[in-house]
Write a structure and sequence with these properties.
By secondary structure, the protein is mainly β. It has one helix at 3-16, and strands at residues 20-24, 29-33, 81-84, 89-92, 108-109, 114-120, 123-128, 133-138, 144-146, 151-157. The protein is globular.
Length: 158
Amino acid sequence: MSTQDIQQLIDFISQSGLDEVNIETTDLKISVKRYGSGAPVAAAPAASVAVAPAPVQQAVATPAAPVATPVAPKADTSNYITIKSPMIGTFYRSASPESPMFVEVGDTVSEGKVVCIIEAMKLFNEIESEVSGRIVKILVENATPVEYDQPLFLVEPI
């Protein structure tokens, strides 16, 4: 079973509303589980080791007193195109820490240009732009986990 087959299985399960699916053959075991509203997580082949996100504890801060802040008008983003993550993994803006970033805000990209790398199951997948335009905003911090279909970049079409 290829990684593309696994990704298609995850997509199908996420759209079906199922919370858990286990598939086992002689040389492959896959366990897909959905936790809350998060994206599903796939397991590793043959080793029977399930990969699941660690529970995250969030501290709740209570403000001492409300502070009035001016509200800036939101920019109209309806004409922007979003480049989304095609998989679950870790988002990287460059090939290595010493390498320059693939794209910066203001850069012009063409269809097929590599905009980032997503590491999934020890594989580094180059993510290419599907549109031509100018990078308006980078929505994810470098070296952070991303989910399937999570917005990564906003692009203003040319």
